[in-house]
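Hello forum,

I keep getting stuck at the same step: I have a sequence, I want structure tokens, and every attempt I make locally crashes halfway through. Rather than fight my setup again tonight, could one of you with a working pipeline run this one for me? It's a single chain of 319 residues.
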Amino acid sequence: MKTVLGIDIGATKIRATVSGDDLRITDPVVKRSPAVADPDVFTAELATLVERACSEAGLTPAAISAVGVGSAGPIKRTPEAVLNPPNLPVDNLPIERAVRAAVDTDQVRVLNDAVCGAVAEHEFAGGGTDDMVYLTVSTGLGAGVIVDGRPLGGNTGEVGHLTVDPGMTMECGCGGAGHWEAYCSGVNLPRYARHLSQHGDHGTALSTDGTLSAADIFAAAPDDELAAATLAQFDHWNLIGLADVVHAFAPSYVALGGSVVLHNRDRVLTPLRERLSDHVMVDPPAIGVTEFGDEIVLKGALAVAADQVSPGASPSPQL
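Reply #2:
Ran it on my machine without issues. Output:
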């Protein structure tokens, strides 16, 4: 039996789990992502997470056959590191080197977290299609893309940095402006609501200071004018962004995930289903929400790890 390790490095949490041939996730170890700019501190926390995951599985790190890692990107290909991540405080994070040092195997693969999500959705759910996209709307916004049954690797899915607003009103965490993520991600939606409050005539009972959250906005709509206006624009930018994704990759199915979607399933999904056909000149894809919740990246990371031990267990990304 192979023993594999999956790791999910997100903007707010890092998770790890050990699994066998069934690739089942059981009691993953979860920690808050270190809010530090020092890569040495971050990688030390990552090593501790790996040790805890192995310990809770009753194993030593030496028992691990292969590791799959899904990380917030963008991913620098050589060395395998995260480069200038807009949603993590640390730059040039040497993930592959850190994980190799924590386990006794060279079989370590680091991919964008949304790519791992796409692998999970295609391998274990997938809507019965070999052409699909997994779109995550969370702290950031990104996608993993499956074409002809194979995931596209590298930084193909950094769709959160598509320009949806030519007026470039809102600045993105990457330093650009007008990007999809700057309007619709969980961390940026409150910023956008504050902008609309300052530049429009929207009555609101919401606090528009730094404590405003995406959850506050969804909870207040449709009764609150500012919340309703913000979410109307949220729908608008999502439709533009998703239409671009559809025209670029022609998916038959789009699976949505990420905390913003998972906590507001129908509110996010319904406008896309009802109105996407007005924005595309091809057949619109079926759209659903992943059944794997916030464990989808871990699920995909395990599949990526298993593929290194038994090639063909899951399709390798095209790099």
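The domain at 126-290 is CATH 3.30.420.40 (Nucleotidyltransferase; domain 5). If your local run keeps crashing, start a new thread with the error log.
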